[in-house]
Amino acid sequence: MSAIAMLAASIPLPGCAAGQAEHLARYVREMGEDATSTAVERERGAAMYAEARSKVGTLVVRADVDGARVFVDGTWRGQTPLADPVFVEPGTHTISVEHEGYDTKKMTVQVGAGEESENGVELQRKSASAPPPKPPVMTLAPPARGAEERAGGPRTAVLIGGAATAGAAAVAGVVFTVLANANASDAEEQQSLLRQSGGLGACAAPGSPARCTALNDAVAARYDFSNAAFWSFVGAGTVGIGTLVYGLITRPSVNERRVHVAPLVGSNGLGIGVRGDF
After folding, report:
1. What is the rounded CA–CA span in Å between residue 193 and residue 209?
2. What is the pLDDT of residue 121?
């Protein structure tokens, strides 16, 4: 006898008949699918199953949609298609079948001891809700442009913002340069003091003096501020050139203004010459 059958047989019938019938139903089903089971085992299981069913009510629940959740008296009993019937104590019971996208189906049945109630359920799809109303179509007039934009000239706000950004980046570069030079001076001073007190080799020995730490900090700060200054100047130049190019390519078109740009080459360096009306 399998463990399931032994468990079912060990359940006292009074008050637990439904649970005993549930276990025996599974046992009979599995024995029928097991090729190694003997005829004696199958007959014994069928007899025990029939005796258990005679003391409870049997609910057979079927639905036209697979995967529907079956509840009996609020307790989940499985999903359709159910492998075995649902066993309940004799009396009145509520069956509920639920599935996503379908209306819940509920019914109340009454079943006596040894009786079987067939319950076929047809689920109805939920009615499609009406689509939300479309928002009214609104046509927005383009924002009014200033006299300068109507004439085809560059936007003053862009030019002012670009110039301010480039100026701020340039000022930051100057500040970082000053800080880098200050740390470079500090590093040179610490090196001078270390040469006087024992040479730079003292920093490699265990228990190096505090000046070695100060020297390392000054050198690291110098490189950090130098890099910050470099990238600040690069950013200032990039924004400045971009602002200049924007101002040149958005030329006014009302009065046919012209701007001429030409490179300038001299003994002291390179430059750009701009000539025209602004």
Report:
1. 11
2. 92
